[in-house]
Amino acid sequence: MNSSAGGGSAMAREPELAGQTVVVIGGSAGMGLETARRARAEGARVILTGRDAEKLQRAASEVDALSFAAFDAEDPAAMARFFRELPGAIDHVMVTAGRPSYGRILEMSHEQGREALVAHVMLFIEAARNAVGKVKPGGTLIFIGGTGAKRPAIGIGIASTVTIALPALTANLALELAPVRANLIAPGFVDTPLSAELLGDDLEKRRKQLRDTLPIRRVVGPADVAALAVHIMANTAITGATYDIDGGQQFVAG
Hints:
Layout: E1 21-25, H1 30-41, E2 45-50, H2 53-62, E3 67-70, H3 76-84, E4 90-95, H4 110-131, E5 135-144, H5 157-177, E6 181-187, H6 193-199, H7 203-213, H8 222-234, E7 242-245
Parallel strand pairs: 1-2, 1-4, 2-3, 4-5, 5-6, 6-7
Helix pairs in contact: 1-8, 3-4, 4-5
């Protein structure tokens, strides 16, 4: 047995994603960028996409991205072009793009309601469709959903309806994509730039409320989601699964 004067030595751990390529769609900030950081730390090459070219370029520079592409992920032609132009096979795709639609259901027009219901679901479907033939067997598509359906409230009806559909969509895609895997991460509140934008002056109040009430006694951050995402990438036994990550938010009032 090897030992040192300090009482022992830990074996060096191999990076979990060494030599693999990870595409993050929506990787210029928040959960996407943090996942890119984590994947790079685990030995992966990363390719980032985002809507804001300037912000995306800064993010790509920070993580030494293999490449990056600025486009609207909800544009199916742009999504198809991005995958078509990838220079080779990839190992994993994480889709964090898109944002929830809030507002009273009955105050939305027919077109607004249809767009809100369809956009997020079709984003995932288009990503999956274009990943066929690009993602290596055993790799995974990771989608980001939410836990809103477990806590109905006025103003989140459309977002809740979409989030409750995503686990079923993911499970079915896991069958159609096999041996490529498909999995869903369903966060509650995550302290990201998007959360700050949506909450504005109420952000600190929300943080305090969560610190006071969540069973974990802290706010969930992008690093928590990133750690789960990288685990899903590395663990090739996981497919068709949905992972709630909300610090127990769905179990407490408020």
